[in-house]
Design a protein that fits this description.
By secondary structure, this protein is α/β, with parallel strands linked by helices. Helices cover 38% and strands 15% of the residues. The strands form 3 sheets. It has an 8-stranded parallel beta sheet with strand order 1-5-6-7-10-11-12-13. Strands 2-3-4 form a 3-stranded antiparallel beta sheet, with no helix packed on it. Helix 2 runs parallel beside helix 3, helix 3 packs parallel to helix 4 and helix 6 packs parallel to helix 8. The two termini are 19 Å apart.
Length: 337
């Protein structure tokens, strides 16, 4: 879970939608490229982003049976024209579908949706979930400054529940607090803070109560939420909520999911305590420098049964057994065995 990919042949939609901040790929050679955003170089990427062969080689080396590929967050493009974002999402999902179709036992996918237009997002979500190997979609933590808790998104999340879709919530660089990015802390502080704020808004607004059983997975171990939850509970009690209320933030949070990408075992322990051992999924941020080294570093020393749940069975209980993986293919999820 939580790996990223992009099509090296992605059309430059800026030619059709001038003035919109959109991504494109500038190939330098067969193995290297620049990912552009809004006409500027955004990130250096390599063939692991678009080619199955190096991904499969890395997976075999690290003991990974199945990768779930998903968009690079800069490609959400919620601030631009909804028609452009819808076309971009469809192109990305077609690319993911080809990856899955070519290697159905090794790849699954989380698609993209144009969430600034919830009706178009529902249409693309339905298209994704009608394709083999799609488990759900990846979305940002906000849409043009509007929190995911806003009622305009209720229908989208209702359809996600209806279709059994997993929704991975991942912050985008474009949405981080300027206070964090201006001092070089976008990655270290900005992203977890943004995710924590988004989660707190979902909890405090009543959105989770309006959207029961929607499978929301918060990237990066849910960011700051595990550290905030005690204070959120106390704030609710000060405001008059009773300690036995089902709406206490920590009780609501138990319905959420997160990935394991915390970079710290104690932080992962806090996430497991908050969400429960059955609501944490193995995440890697492959193929970017944010990957743990070795890839199973964060989960390697967990009790065997918990590691197995995080690395395999928590997903399989909802989507069925992964094909071709064997009894223990994901038990270590990496080189520590």
């Amino acid at each position: 879970m939580h790996t990223h990919a992009i099509d090296a042949g992605l059309p430059d939609l800026a030619r059709r939608f001038p003035g919109d901040p959109l991504p494109s790929v500038e190939l330098l050679d067969d193995t290297d490229a620049w990912l552009h955003f809004d006409g500027k170089r955004y990130r250096r990427i390599d063939h692991r982003c678009w080619s199955a062969a190096p991904r499969l080689a890395d997976m075999d080396r690290d003991g990974i049976a199945v990768q779930v590929v998903s968009p690079i967050p800069v490609t959400f493009c919620y601030r631009g024209d909804a028609a452009a974002a819808a076309e971009l999402a469809a192109l990305q999902n077609d690319f993911f579908a080809r990856m899955v179709s070519n290697h159905p036992t090794r790849f699954a996918a989380l698609g993209a949706v144009p969430l600034q237009d919830p009706d178009r997002a529902v249409e693309e979500l339905r298209r994704c979930m009608g394709r083999p190997g799609f488990l759900g979609v990846e979305i940002g933590t906000q849409v043009r400054g509007i929190d995911l808790s806003d009622e305009r998104f209720d229908h989208f999340f209702a359809i996600a529940h209806e279709l059994g879709a997993l929704i991975l919530v991942h912050p985008s660089d474009q949405d981080l607090l300027p206070r964090t990015t201006s001092i070089g802390l976008g990655f270290g502080a900005g992203m977890p803070i943004e995710t924590g704020l988004a989660a707190a808004a979902l909890i405090g607004s009543g959105a989770l109560a309006r959207r029961p059983r929607v499978r929301l997975c918060l990237a990066h171990g849910a960011g700051t939420l595990p550290s905030l939850i005690g204070r959120l509970d106390k704030g609710a009690l000060i405001a008059g909520m009773t300690e036995d209320s089902a709406d206490l933030p920590s009780r609501q949070a138990a319905a959420l999911w997160c990935d394991s990408l915390t970079y710290n075992p104690r932080a992962l322990d806090a996430a497991v305590e908050l969400f429960g051992p059955d609501h944490v999924l193995f995440g890697s941020d492959y193929p970017f420098p944010a990957m743990p080294e070795p890839i199973d570093d964060i989960v390697a020393d967990l009790p065997v049964d918990l590691r197995y749940r995080i690395c395999r069975t928590n997903v399989e209980e909802h989507y069925g057994p992964f094909p071709r993986t064997g009894a223990h293919a994901l038990s270590a999820a990496g080189g520590h065995g």
